[in-house]
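Running this now, will post back.
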Amino acid sequence: MPIKYKALLNVDLGEAFGNYKCGPDDELVPLIDQANIACGFHASDPLIMMNTVRLCKEHNGFGRREMKLSPEELTAMVIYQVGALKGFLDAESLPLSHVKPHGVLYGMMCRDYEVAKAVLLGIPKGVPTFGLVGTEIERAARDLGIEMWAEMYGDVMYSADGMLVIDRKKKPWKTEDVEKHVTQQLITASATATDGSTVHFDMKDYPITVCCHSDSPGALEIVTAAKAAIDKFNKDYDK
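Update: finished.
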């Protein structure tokens, strides 16, 4: 199904900890539409969270291993982390625009309905989430009445079954490959999988957002290339 809306660009940010920097956040924020701010479990700490919120305000604006947690623990940890972020947003008079699960937890939600449901139950009422179409995130969001934005990826490949291929250690991308990858998804609602097959996505009537990562090698170049593809799609959309 053709894409019905203009696309936005989101990036995972604030993944530093203490004196350890992770990603060129200062350079990335002016380029993006939506920020996914790490809340201390996957990465980040209170000071990094506060500074990332302030950085996003100036411009208008991750785990790699599975953890076996009960549904109650999953819901509680989301409420805990979102509550912390909400405190920093309130201090800057900013709204909570969305909640985006991250890393391996996102992959677990794609595959496991109970995990997806437990995580989404921790999201405040009226706040949308981002998710991959055709997965258990989509089914759980629909069942719970939670608005979902369909998420595509600029710097992650897909397997033949439409799932994300998450590498323990991220690999660099050529900018021309990023533009081609994003453009194919936006124009055809499909992607070339790691085995060379074509994966088709049923985008329905969802708003669209394209995700890139601040901790990918060459993140600034990747985000710039993804933005170029998105801007061209949105410009053509207006014609």
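The CA atoms of residues 89 and 211 lie 22 Å apart. More later if anyone needs it.
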